[in-house]
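User: I'm putting together a teaching handout on how multi-component assemblies are represented. Below are the sequence lines for each component of a complex, exactly as they appear in our records. Could you produce the 3D structure of the whole assembly as structure tokens, so the students can see both representations side by side? Please keep the chain order the same as the input.
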Amino acid sequence: VRLPKLQHERRSGGRRTHVDARAALRARREAHAARRAAGELISLARLLGRPVRDFSGRRVGSVDDITVRWTDQDTHPPVTGVIVRIGRGLVHVGIDAVDLHQDAVEHRTKSVVVDTPTRRPGVVALRRDVLDHQLIDVAGAQVVRAADLYVVVASGAPSLVGVDVGVRAYLRRALPTGGPRRPSPVRMIDWAELVAFVPRSVDAATGLETSKPADATTGLEAPGGTRALRTAAAGVVGGAVRLSVGAHELHTLSGGELTSLMEELGRKQQSGLIASAHPSAAAAALSSLDPAAREALLAELDPDDRRRLRGLVEKMSA
Amino acid sequence: METLDRPPAPAPAAPSRRPWWRSRKLVAVLAVLGPGLIAANAGNDAGGVLTYASAGAQFAYKTLFLMVLVTVALVVVQEMCSRLGAYTGEGLGGLFREQFSARSASGALVLLLIANVGLTVSEFAGVGAAMEILGVSRFVAVPIAAVVLWALTVLGSYSKAERIFLVLSLAFLAYPIAALLGHPNAKEVLSNLAWPHFPHTAEFAVLAVALIGTTITPYMQFYVASAVVDKGITPTGYAKERVDTVMGAIWSDVVAVFIIIATAAAIGGTGPLQTAKDAAAALTPAVGSGAPYLFAFGLLGAALLAAAVVPLSTSYAIADAAGAPRSVSNSLREAPLFYGLFTLQIVVGAAIALAPGNLVALVVNAQVLNGFITPVLLTYVLILANRRSVLGDAVNGSRFRVVATVCVVVVAVLSFLVLLYTLRGLF
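Assistant: Of course. Below is the structure of the complete assembly, with chains in the same order as your input.
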């Protein structure tokens, strides 16, 4: 859409200045996009302590933590489960058994299998390991602290999208009145900007160094040249999560960028489902989409799958 | 704040010959003066000196046994804080945020801010008192000091001024000499050091809380933990740091005890200090007629040093917990929270110090406020040092845990009693 070149006038220091209406309109659109995206985000800080309900809607416990799997393949780690506080005890419920909402977690089925929460390789407990912890830059200097974490449910699969590092997000939790409870990702960093957990010093349990420059793609090299997990130092007191950039290059997502990220995550989830479905069912699902959405989904697939499915779709439409 | 920033990467050794003041031997000697020693000595600021002098003037030697108990508590508290810094690599502000709920952590930091605003008030009152001895009105001296300190810090040349203030504050080392030359009653001194002779009065209880408040300041606890982190001390190097912390706490209180003895020998039992000039009388045996001037310069140096360092360390702790930029190397635009808090403390501190009334009483009251807040913040520190999930094998042992708990409880009970006295006096 070509925008009209309107010009507003305002007084500033006694002189007339011209402000392009495009900038104001762009800002309004950004704000609108941010508000729309915020409505779809699940805030970890808001969800903590909220009820976990069984299939009949009865409260069985409260949310204590959320776990995600963070490996080299996961730029936006998928949620693997919820740690539920029942009385004084804790249980872990797999994500297949529950639905995440902004104010509650609900069981999907009448009976749910639970297990004891244990620290597993590649799995991160977001409250314990990330919330309020330091995010450090490539040089090892503390840049910010994680004030909130946001999960988005794309095509039924929840993933961690980003970290809010704003003071406003922290005040929302700290103020006695509670402040505005709605997530407001004003200073949100894309989780893909984060590289790995790092301990504070070499004599920590893992033997990894914080001062070592981060590997741009994988995280860290452990002593001896073996590749260490991104999560090897998760949960270490005084540890931090390292960013892939320097302090001055830290980029916070705009409303538009957040919307695009969520759409991209949705496409990835859908393409994952299509890739794992039977070819005829996948082709039928693709046929029901409009051409642009279909092409965007096909672009996410392996070349072989893409060729085969495109052929099937063309055959079906013929 | 430069001293609290993470250390930069070590620079390669310069090939040129070192001047004498940077010789290896001197560096080795100075290396012993670690964060613990510096933090504990920071307690002997303007507020500390005037409170100790007031104790000597009002109750002569009767507070000496209390100072022995306070020294034990100071050693315990400072050791816990430096251990937390060494084993977690985080300052107390950051640890509070990570280990407590958002509301608890922010509540503790608000208390720290209140305590340190009180301390800043007492530092500016110290500036005013020192300048009045030198014949300059505090209504001129305090605003100028506030503006100069703010400008020096924000415009980036504070570190040079800090050295001058530090040298000025060394004037208080004349107190041990004055205490010896003042011919105090040795029998009475030893008796009061070894056994309590506490008067059962509300005035003594208030002064006791002020002595605790000025010796075990929350500011020192936050400072020592951050300084240990800043110096890069890790669990492997902690044994030396523990010695430094314990020695620092003891040395700091030895100086405090000498201030009390010197003042008690000179003007003991004459009632609360009315002016800072009275406190200077204690230095007369050591320096003769120059005592008021030596005292004034010492008080001015200590007050100016702390008037900048206390607000800076508060801003640092709060900005650290908030995850906001927090260095004097940042510009105003880059670190608005850090500089905003710093400015707020300077403005409020200087404004209250200009209120009409007795400056010495204002300083002692600020220490009483610190005394009320200290046990609350000590409870947080104690909880952290008792958590195995935080300190691992370095967690408080069972005996240490008992001693530390007793220290915190005694301080809390004493503060509560003084609060009751105060409220009873009001209604």
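A couple of points students might notice: Residues 102-133 of chain B form the longest helix (32 residues). Chain B touches chain A at residues 6, 87-90, 94, 97-98, 102-103, 105-106, 234-236, 320-324, 337, 389-391 (CB under 8 Å).
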